[in-house]
Amino acid sequence: MSDTPTPRTRFPKDRLEKVISGNSSKQPDGCWAWSRCINSRGYGLAWDGLKVVLAHRLSYEVFNSDPGNLFVCHRCDVPHCVNPEHLFLGTNGDNSQDAYNKNRNPNAKIAQDKIASLIEAIDSGESTSKIAARFGVTPAAVWYWNNKRNEHGI
Ligand SMILES: [Zn+2]
């Protein structure tokens, strides 16, 4: 290790593209599920060489365009999805409305007795969006329970 610190720089665009595509896995329903850190609100966190950034924002910037001050929202309602095709720009108001409409607390949205059949559906290979529609919950809720099951060995 050298004693002289080299100034940190943000990764070049081609490396940032690899950060997104290399740390996400493509799902049958088209979502790119972020496989690294997820914050408490369910969003993926990425390292851009300089700082920790929201993975979906980085994806939007790298594959679409710089979102500037606008919010990057999900058409698919899977917060940790980084598929640039599932992302769109919204104003603060849009985002709040979006969050309000799509209840960000998936835990509260599903009855306990439905969880076992939901997990069965995941195991049977049914797509996240189909399961969500069938159970009347958001795809985020399906993800939530799929992750929970792994945690608790349901
Ligand atoms: Zn998606």
Helix-strand layout with pairing:
Layout: H1 13-22, E1 24-26, E2 32-34, E3 45-47, E4 52-54, H2 55-63, E5 71-74, E6 87-90, H3 92-101, H4 112-123, H5 128-135, H6 139-152
Antiparallel strand pairs: 1-2, 3-4, 5-6
Zinc ion binds at residues 31, 76, 78, 81, 83, 86.
Provide a quick synopsis of the model.
With 154 residues, the chain is an alpha+beta fold. It contains 6 helices and 6 strands. The chain has 2 domains: 10-102, no CATH class; 105-154.
Q: How would you characterize the overall build of this protein?
A:
The structure is a single chain. This protein is an alpha+beta fold and 154 residues long. The chain folds into 2 domains: 10-102, no CATH class; 105-154. The chain is 41% helix and 13% strand. The protein is built from 6 helices and 6 strands; from the N terminus they run αββββαββαααα. The strands form 3 sheets. The protein has a two-stranded antiparallel sheet. A two-stranded antiparallel sheet has the order 3-4. It is elongated, with a radius of gyration of 17 Å. The mean pLDDT is 83. Zinc ion binds at residues 31, 76, 78, 81, 83, 86.
